[in-house]
Automatic annotation (TrEMBL):
SUPFAM superfamilies: Pentapeptide repeat-like (SSF141571), YWTD domain (SSF63825)
Organism in which the protein naturally occurs: Rotaria magnacalcarata
Pfam families documented for this protein: Pentapeptide
Protein name (database record): Low-complexity protein
The organism's taxonomic lineage, starting at the top: Eukaryota, Metazoa, Spiralia, Gnathifera, Rotifera
Alphabetized Gene3D superfamilies for the sequence: E3 ubiquitin-protein ligase SopA (2.160.20.80), TolB, C-terminal domain (2.120.10.30)
Length: 574
């Protein structure tokens, strides 16, 4: 059909393979619900053409002119718009996978509620384009020009805006986690209530930007012209980097968290038991530390923190409270612990326990100071994953490579004993449920000689009243968790990146185990379930297979009663 002119043409519900419409002119054409495979529209002029709900594969619109075009609800895979002109084009609710808009001009184009995967916009001019409520996986805007763009409530996952010029654009309520704005020029842009966690603005030119209520956790502003005063209305600036490389932090949610010698202990803290005092630091003459009073061997202080005006569960559903401090316990140190926040949490209790042998003479060797509590805010959009595109005809190598064990059955660091479930992290670290060794072991990429025990390994155990060193840590009020230090034939394991912890199928329970060094303890998440396999979805729900009840249940973290999703009708193959 090259060099043809169509006036009122209907191709709807059809199928076109290897069609050539190059240099063709269309007026009022209909391709709705049509499948187009290897079709060439290069240098074509399209006006008032309907591609709604079409399936377009390996198509070319290069150097074409597209006006008043409807791609809503269409699927476009491997489609090129290189150097084309798009005006009044609707991609709403469409799926675009590997589409290329390089050197293209887009004016009044609608991508709202669309899903874009690996879509490129380098050197593109975008004017009055709507991406609201869309999901963009690794979009590439390198050296593009964006004017009057609407990214409101958009998921920009690992977006690259490097060397882009952006003006009069709204990012309000968008998720730009780990996105790159390096060397970008942004003016008159609104980031109100956006999630910019770990985003990078290095050497960017920032003028008249609104970061009010934005999450700037670990955001990097190195080399920019922005100061701390311009970020004062942000939701969080914890560990953000200012222009000169200075780290900034959120206000401490703990009252009297530093051991100030001029402030009584009673300010902020309640003495639960024993006696705690403040002593001059052995490292600084201007600083005091919380420590046990002389001749005391045990004490506790606690403080309650109201979350009602600090955390909105509907806006930031996947958030965690982080408690950190400078402390020393018999010359060993710990840094921080975290707690995933649930919808029904309105108050936290921070509990500091001092415990030392009676024969310890020097209280300066056992102290706590700089106690800080802050919130790491998160949304479900951070958990969105790109599913790998594995061809249907893919084949797998038949000769595998040993990455763990291979030294026969045993309990050595280079051995496994009936390994069951495993989980592979993004860096190819392998975590294995070493069932008959009652432990979880970790094998780093490239190290096939020795594994590292990261949970359990203290012989078999599952009875709570046999455990030692039980303690209550930062937690929701009236919902204390008991920690444990043993596993009993664990069968599966996964990594929860939100809390940097392991979730383990262990005998008749599901437990969480911190990945932090020297933790050595876990906590029970779900009890009275004969767990064999585990999975977690993007909304942080746990799926647990129960071999006694022959069912699979879904659990919300923090709850012990799950929802039946499969089975539950007894043993059988029906």
């Amino acid at each position: 059909f090259a060099d043809t002119e169509f006036d009122i043409a209907n191709f709807s519900l059809g199928r076109i393979n290897h069609g050539n419409f190059s240099f063709t002119i269309f007026h009022n054409a209909n391709f709705s619900y049509t499948r187009l495979d290897n079709v060439d529209f290069s240098s074509a002029e399209l006006d008032t053409v309907n591609y709604s709900s079409a399936n377009i594969l390996n198509a070319v619109f290069n150097k074409g002119s597209l006006r008043n075009i409807n791609f809503s609800f269409a699927q476009l895979v491997n489609v090129d718009f290189l150097s084309a002109r798009l005006e009044n084009v609707d991609f709403s609710y469409a799926l675009l996978n590997k589409a290329d808009f390089s050197f293209t001009s887009l004016s009044n184009v609608n991508f709202s509620n669309a899903q874009l995967i690996n879509v490129n916009f380098p050197n593109t001019i975008l004017n009055d384009v709507d991406f609201s409520f869309a999901k963009l996986h690794k979009p590439y805007f390198f050296e593009a020009q964006l004017t009057k763009i609407n990214f409101a409530s958009t998921a920009l996952i690992l977006a690259n805006f490097r060397l882009t010029k952006v003006s009069n654009t709204t990012f309000q309520k968008s998720s730009c986690v780990a996105s790159t704005f390096d060397d970008t020029s942004l003016s008159d842009c609104n980031f109100w209530h956006s999630n910019l966690k770990e985003a990078k603005f290095k050497q960017a030119k920032l003028n008249h930007l609104n970061f009010s209520r934005a999450n700037l956790y670990k955001t990097d502003f190195t080399g920019t012209n922005i100061g701390k005063s311009e970020l004062e209305n942000a939701l969080s600036i914890e560990d953000a980097v200012l222009s000169n490389g200075t780290l900034v932090h959120d206000a401490n949610l703990i009252n009297n968290g530093q051991g100030d010698c001029n402030i009584p202990l009673i300010n902020g803290w309640t003495l639960g038991s024993g006696n705690v005092t403040k002593l001059m630091s052995n490292r600084s003459n201007s600083n005091c530390q919380f420590t046990l009073e002389s001749l005391s061997t045990e004490a506790a202080i606690y403080q309650r923190v109201n979350l009602s005006d600090k955390w909105d569960s509907s806006s930031w559903p996947y958030s965690q409270a982080v408690l950190m401090s400078s402390e020393e316990t018999l010359n060993s140190t710990k840094e921080k612990i975290s707690l995933l926040l649930n919808d029904d949490m309105w108050e936290l209790e921070v509990f500091i326990k001092f415990n030392t042998p009676a024969n310890l003479r020097n209280m300066n060797n056992y102290w706590c100071d700089d106690i800080k509590l802050y919130i790491v805010y998160g949304t479900d959009l951070e958990l969105t994953r790109v599913i790998p595109n594995i061809p249907a005809n893919a084949t797998w190598a038949q000769n595998g490579v040993t990455v763990a064990g291979g030294k026969g059955r045993g309990d050595g660091k280079n051995q496994l004993n009936n390994p069951n479930g495993l989980f592979v992290d993004d860096d190819q670290t392998v975590v294995i449920a070493d069932m008959w060794n009652d432990r979880i072991v970790q094998w780093m990429k490239g190290d096939t000689t020795n594994g590292k025990v990261v949970a359990g390994g203290n012989d078999q155990g599952n009875i709570l009243n046999e455990l030692n060193n039980q303690t209550i840590v930062l937690n929701q009020l009236n919902n204390a968790n008991v920690v444990l230090n043993q596993l009993n034939h664990p069968t599966d394991v996964l990594i929860d990146k939100e809390t940097d912890s392991l979730i383990i199928c262990d005998d008749k329970r599901v437990v969480r185990w911190s990945r932090e060094i020297n933790t050595g303890e876990g906590e029970i998440l779900i009890e009275n379930v004969k767990c064999y396999g585990l999975a977690m979805d993007d909304q942080k729900y746990l799926y647990v297979s129960d071999t006694e009840k022959h069912e699979v249940r879904r659990y919300k973290l923090g709850e012990n009663n799950g929802t039946l999703v499969a089975g539950g009708n007894g043993n059988g193959d029906g």
